[in-house]
Amino acid sequence: MTSTTFSSVYDYLSPYSTFKSSTTLGFSIVCTIFLSLYWYANKTDIPYIKGIPEIPGAVPIFGHLLKLGDDHATMCERWWRKYQTSVYQIKLGNTRAVVVNSFDDVRRMLIGHQSAVIDRPTLYTFHGVISSTQGFTIGSSPWDDSTKNRRKAAGQALGRPAIRTYFDMFDLESYCVVRDFYRYSQRGGVEINVRPFIQRYALNTTLTLCYGIRMDSAYDELLREILEVGSAISLLRSASENYQDYVPAFRYLPSNEKTQRSKELRARRDKYLGYLLNKVRVMIEQGTDKPCISSAILKDQETKLTEVEVSSICLSLVSGGFETIPGTLTSCIGSLSTPEGQVFQDRAYEDIQRHYPGGTSEIWMNSFEAEKVPYVNAIVKEAARYYTVSALSLPRKTVTDIEWDGAIIPAKTMILINAQAANHDVDHFGPDADTFNPERWLTSNLDAALHNSLSALEEKPSQGIQHYSFGAGSRACSGQLIASRLLYTAVIRILSCYKIIASEAEPPNTDYVDYNQFKSALVAIPRDFKVRLVPRQGVEIDGILREAENRTKNYYQE
Ligand code: HEM
């Protein structure tokens, strides 16, 4: 035996060598475990996408979630400017997402690649817990045949030809808004918060469409329950409120309040959706049902949709409008009530009178049939752009690879459209992009137009998509036509009766980020404020309301 071999055998047999090798083994095991954990903590559903910059500072397990804070859209907008790249990738826990910020890049993504970004991602809390009983809303459904059919049915119910059949509803609901402004402000003597009346406006519209049911009181118990549950669910859809969607370990924590809360909300929502659908069934039996989506489908006059699909459509329409419309219209009233906004009100009123010289009755009768007054259209468009209530739109997911400036964004990647950033892009809207200014949508020779009794005032011809508040492309908002009509009708009726003045004690917050009191919610909820409603000189509001009451008193009576 050579000395080398002997020493190896000795090494092998000696207790010291056993210790040494077991230490090495232990060390390797610890290293392997550590590296595996590190790998697992940094792992994402889609690996790093070469050629798309990643925002620095991601940490294991959470990725960029902690850095994003509560207000994801605003942080993403800041990163765009700080790192000078409008398109970049981030990690939401275990999910990789590509964020698109500038106006032009959003157009390129949503229109240029519309078939590739037709899908929506599914999330653990919203899809797995909350939606497990009534099916997904259209806006949260991945793209498949059922979604296609539901989107088509919703498109028919909300499309241009159908809008004509809703004139009575627009007339009645917008009358109720002005009626209650009049009542609660004690004919303009008391400052009021306008939001509850606008919430009822939005909710009644979609309840009428879906179930032929409405509620007259803005403080009705069922109405408040639907609004409360809907808002709470909207909070549970946001990434900043729901780490368990992106950090799976959180789902197994013994005191997982989110799952518990989601189940409670699901039960409350099931209760009122069941109640509404049953009410339609009873009305059908008694022959008292009103024309609406669920009665048409329950009577099988329409498509071959299942009952879960009918529920999903109704749920989509109710949840599509009940926060977005109040968010936009309430904030719009806030901006109009400021000293700068009062100038816009005066010009709008002049433009309204130019189109309807016959007086307030004529204005009211024509307010829901067409959107004819350029200044009012400009106010509606600016309100939707400036207050981008759905700041991060609804997330998309790629179905096929996308070639993006030489990089390949793989299929199944989450795409986040930063509509707030695109809507305030100074490269597109100019240096005053962060100012509320309806006149950006009107002919530029406004001064000349104003000196000529506004007769030269026109809307600028639209060149493609004007803003991204309704999204764009293959999954754009199905309700945008009806939303614009609701906003237009309310604005023109309110402005024809009142001048709106901001309260000095409780003025509106008109900052396009800070107006929102819940930054983490999917849809913005404006901070509370009050306004004074000063009746317009020469307008007999009593008379206008009486006329409207007589005209609408038999609409949608149970
Ligand atoms: C000011 C009012 C509204 C705003 C700002 C708004 C905004 C949006 C946005 C940003 C999307 C996602 C678009 C995309 O991914 O490109 C969307 C989808 C949708 N909206 Fe609206 N919306 C409004 C009113 C309404 C109303 C009144 C309804 C129904 C009555 C409605 C029904 C829907 C539906 C069904 C979808 C899902 C479309 C799909 O995923 O295929 N929305 N909305």
From TrEMBL:
<keyword id="KW-0408">Iron</keyword>
<dbReference type="GO" id="GO:0020037">
    <property type="term" value="F:heme binding"/>
</dbReference>
<dbReference type="InterPro" id="IPR001128">
    <property type="entry name" value="Cyt_P450"/>
</dbReference>
<keyword id="KW-0479">Metal-binding</keyword>
<comment type="similarity">
    <text>Belongs to the cytochrome P450 family.</text>
</comment>
<dbReference type="Pfam" id="PF00067">
    <property type="entry name" value="p450"/>
</dbReference>
<keyword id="KW-0812">Transmembrane</keyword>
<feature type="transmembrane region" description="Helical">
    <location>
        <begin position="23"/>
        <end position="41"/>
    </location>
</feature>
<dbReference type="GO" id="GO:0004497">
    <property type="term" value="F:monooxygenase activity"/>
</dbReference>
<protein>
    <recommendedName>
        <fullName>Phenylacetate 2-hydroxylase</fullName>
    </recommendedName>
</protein>
<keyword id="KW-1133">Transmembrane helix</keyword>
<keyword id="KW-0472">Membrane</keyword>
<feature type="binding site" description="axial binding residue">
    <location>
        <position position="477"/>
    </location>
    <ligand>
        <name>heme</name>
    </ligand>
</feature>
<dbReference type="GO" id="GO:0016705">
    <property type="term" value="F:oxidoreductase activity, acting on paired donors, with incorporation or reduction of molecular oxygen"/>
</dbReference>
<dbReference type="InterPro" id="IPR050364">
    <property type="entry name" value="Cytochrome_P450_fung"/>
</dbReference>
<keyword id="KW-0560">Oxidoreductase</keyword>
<keyword id="KW-0349">Heme</keyword>
<dbReference type="GO" id="GO:0005506">
    <property type="term" value="F:iron ion binding"/>
</dbReference>
<dbReference type="InterPro" id="IPR002401">
    <property type="entry name" value="Cyt_P450_E_grp-I"/>
</dbReference>
<dbReference type="InterPro" id="IPR036396">
    <property type="entry name" value="Cyt_P450_sf"/>
</dbReference>
